[in-house]
Structures are given as structure tokens and as C-alpha cells.
Amino acid sequence: MRAALALARxxxxxxxxxxxxxxxxVAAGRVVxxxxxxxxxxxxxxxxxxxxxxxxxxxATAYVTLEPCAHHGKTPxxxxxxxxAGIVRVVSALRDPDPRxxxxxxxxxxxxxxSVVEGVLEAEARDLNAGFLSRIEQGRPLVTLKxxxxxxxxxxTHTGESRWITGPAARAHAHLLxxxxxxxxxxxxxxxxxxxxxxxxxxxxxxxxxxxxxxDGRLRMPLTHRLAATAEDIPTWVVTLAxxxxxxxxxxxxxxxxxxxxxxxxxxxxxxxAALTALGSAxxxxxxxxxxxxxxxxxxxxxxxDRLIWFRAARMIGGxxxxxxxxxxxDRLSQTPRFGRVDISTVGDDVMETYSRI
Length: 358
Hints:
- There is one protein chain.
- The protein is of the alpha/beta class.
- It is 28% helix and 25% strand.
- The protein has 12 helices and 16 strands.
- The two termini are 27 Å apart.
């Protein structure tokens, strides 16, 4: 099952709206087939593993990180494919919460006489597919907020200089995070100030650049910026307020940008809950938020940040520097979002801390 989970991880960022699944087929103590969900979500992991195993699948055991699907979509159900191939035992890590599947895949297998074992490394499988589970169970993608700051929590000097606070190793790891997420999201202030590309520029991973999303309630981003200029080549979405400037909206659409029009929240800006619900409906399961301070604060205020990755450089800027977060209405400690640290590691000269919401 650990080998199947490692295979599944390869699909993160590439298989949405489907889950990232891994499958290993074992016969007589020997691995005869392995597979993972292909880019775009098809073929499924079981299909890939069965194709590799061929006739050796008859009488074998299949280790699958998620319950085999039971519904007819673009391909027949994986549960039926396993039965037809002669698999006699299926070991599954996690029940699929999708109502089209949940429990039905296991039922189909057992009715056909296949032995089924469930819950093997379930916690690991749940963590791996937290984004898919979030979209099915909460109707929104998993949100990971990535911050890079000095030790005193500053992301730029008072003049706005921010390149580069962290070192090359930390920046390379940030690009890897992009490759593992369906989308990378920033606020309009960051888009205006930095004119970023938001692509994955690691050698060999250029094709894994995520969808690029800008929270831009009033469509302020110039169409000459790199995000707009490259929207025909790399999917670029803008979350904006409903009922805005229609001429401006048409210009964005003509540039190849997909608009998501959402209602305002109490502060008049885009309601982040409505925005993430819309992005979940579009199929996204994992979003990496890279700034800026206003967007990060809005998501934290709405309790929408599931994971936090914080890179800290051994520098100090002081109180006149730009803070990683603007104020978001905290009066008492009991109101603060709380996170538990799950990992801390050294990345080049910087420290990377990973947290999960409590």
C-alpha cells in the first residue's frame, strides 16, 4: 500500500477533478502491475495496473489507495474491471466519499466473491487526497497558504522590495508546490506589484504549471501583464465581483481569461466562501495561495485556510516593512485561527514550517 500511495502522489496537481489514486497488483509475492491516475483523471489507476499485469492479474491481489469506482462514466467501473481481470482480493486504503461510489464499489466486489480488506494506511490516504475529500465533503478545494518572510514576519521593505527574501532552494521548493496543486492563487495587489508568471519553472516540470487565479474584484489587472498576455497558453482565471464593468469583463474574456463572478462579502470585496465554492464546482481540489497580505487575511478571517507553509529567512526588516498579513479583526486570542505544526525542515539557508488547521 505504501508503494500504491507513492504512485498516487505522482498525480497531485494533474488529475483534478478526480482523486489521485495508485494501484499495485501482486501475484505470488511479485508485483505484476502498477498504475496511477493519468493526467486529466483518465485512465484510472486500476485500469493502468491491469493493463500492465495482463493475464498475471488472474488470482492476484490489488492494493488500491481509494475504493474502486462503481459508476459508469467515460470508462466502465473499476470494480467491474478488477472482477473481469480475475482479481481475487482487493486491499483498499480509503472509502470514496463520492455518493456515486461510497460503499458501492466494495459491494460489487464482494457480491462477485472478491475478498475485500479496507482501511489499510487510511490516515495516509486521507492526507494524500485531502483536496478531493474537501471538494466532495465541503464543496470547496483544499487551501494551502504559502508565506515567505523574514523572522519578524515581513515580506518586503517599506519601499516594496521583496526579491529575494528567501534563497534559491526555498524558491525551487515553492515551484514544486505549484506542480502539486491544481491552481495557484494571488490577490490583485500582488498581480499589480509583481507582474508574476505563476508557472512551475523546475527543469522537466514546466508542463505541470497549475491554473493561475487572481482575486480581482474590480478587474484592475492590466491586460498587458504577463498573466493576461499568456492566458491563451496557460489557464488563467479571475475571481471578480458580479455586476462589474461589462466592457472590461469582455476584454478579459477576449484575452482568454475565464471569469468567476461572485457576490461581495461584508467588506464589499469578493466573498471568499462563495469564490471557493465556485472554484470547487469548476473541479479544483487543491489551491496554493501565494499572496498577498490582504487575500491571506481574508481567507484566514473566513476560516478557509487548511494548511500553512511558512518559509522563514534569517533576516530582519523591522516594523516599517510590509507585514505578511494585514489586520483581519482579531480582538481576543480566542478568535485566532489555530494550527498544529506537522513538520519543520531546513531548505537551503531557510526554514520551512508546515502546519495543519486544528
